[in-house]
Every structure is written in structure tokens, then in C-alpha cells.
Amino acid sequence: MSPTPAMRMEKSDFRLTIPSQTRYLNLVTGLAKRASQLAGMDDSTAAKVSIAVDEAVTNIIMHAYGGEEDHSVELDLHFTSTALEIHMWHTGVGLRGNQIVLPDPKEYVKHPRKGGLGLLLMSRFMDEVRFSEDKGRSECCMIKNIA
Amino acid sequence: MTDLSIQVRDAGCASVVEPSGFINAHTVRQFEGALENLVQAGRYTILLNCRELNYISSAGLGAIMGLIETVRENKGDILLCNLQENVFAIFDTLGFTQLYRVFPSEEEALASLLEQA
Predict the structure, then answer these.
(1) Domain spanning A17-145: which CATH class is it, in words?
(2) B contact residues 19-38, partner A, Cβ 8 Å cutoff
């Protein structure tokens, strides 16, 4: 059986699986920040990556799993010579790229409302954000290039 | 270390809320509760002193957004001061720096409120 992307592991990868509980957000964002620094990013950029990861994992816990705490979120950090790739896998309800509508910050300021900002932060703070599905598992992949 | 602790104090013209740590989906109810308690007590001018705030996610921004209309309808406001660089980047990226008055220090924010009174 050929490995799925989530099963493939290279020497430069780091993998963490957490229960679908918000109590672990701080652990995950701390890891993302340190990984970004390890990849060569400055503190400011690393902080932005950690926020993007917070938003992505929160989306998975609260929306993909509907707040149910007995599932898992798998994070796979892949270091390359030019970027840090963060892959997040889950088995909940996945987002498709064509379902994503980012709020326009200018319109948001004119007509403030609660919610809808997480995806915007992810897209602004990362160089690439994409969503996909493979064999019943959904993935959010975020890439930050190393300047 | 706890993820979030919140101090609330009365500065006369405003209630100062000083969150310390992280405001995310796990801690947002605590933050939201602190703000709601003030509004329920008729304290509609709230200064968020963010000097010990390490980060705030969209969940926390939603909590602020959820109360802004209520406080402004009651002639109050939510002001921000002492934002760390990454916290400012979050507010600025989302255009919140156009929605809220941001001050470098608590003293300057309170002085502005006194001038306005």
C-alpha cells in the first residue's frame, strides 16, 4: 500500500497529534512559533505563523468537529530549504476551496459583525493556504516561505 | 502557568481591563465574561491595556466586536493601549485600528478620555 500524504514522514518532518480540545491550542501555537524560528524566521513572522495555526486548529475543533472533544487533529510540520509547510489533518467536515469566502476588511470595518475573521488572518499571515480531502480525511495546508 | 488571567480596575473615566497571557478559543469565555460583567454594571467605557497580552485570536476579536455596538449606544467606547507588535499586527491586518482608538500608553488613553469629557 502506498503511503497517503499524512502517512509519509521524512527526516525533516515533525508530527503531533492532539485531541480535538481547545485546551491544547497553546501547546500547538507554541510549537508552531518555535518551529518557525527553527526554520529561520524572525520573531515577528513566527508569531504570525503561530496565530495562523491557532485559527486553523480552532476551525477544525469548533467547525469540522462541531466542538466534539473525542476526535483527533494531526499536525505535520515539514521543513524545506525554502519554506515551512504545516499540514493539519482531521476526519470531520472539511472545507473546500470553493466554499471559502474571505471577508473584505474594508467592508468589515463598515459593517462589523462577530465571526469570519480566522480565515482572513490565515490567508494574510501565510503565503499559501489550501484545503483538500483524501480518502475520508480532510487537510488544511499552510505554507510560509522563508525570506 | 494559566493561559489567561484578567485584572479589572476602575480608573475613574474608564474601567481598565488588563488581560495577561493568551486569548484564544479556549480562554475567550473568561475574557468575554469580564467585558460583559462591566457592561452589565453600566461601565460602558472600557480600556483594554494589552501590555501583558501575548496574543489574541479571532475568537477574542469577536468578543470585542460583540460588545462594541452596546457600549457605543450607551455613549461609551472600547479603547486599546500598549499593544505588543504581534497583537497590533492582528488588529491592523483586520482593520480594527480604524474601528478602535489605539494609544501607546494607558496614561495617554485616559488623558484623551478626560479631554473628551
Answers:
(1) alpha beta
(2) 22, 24-26
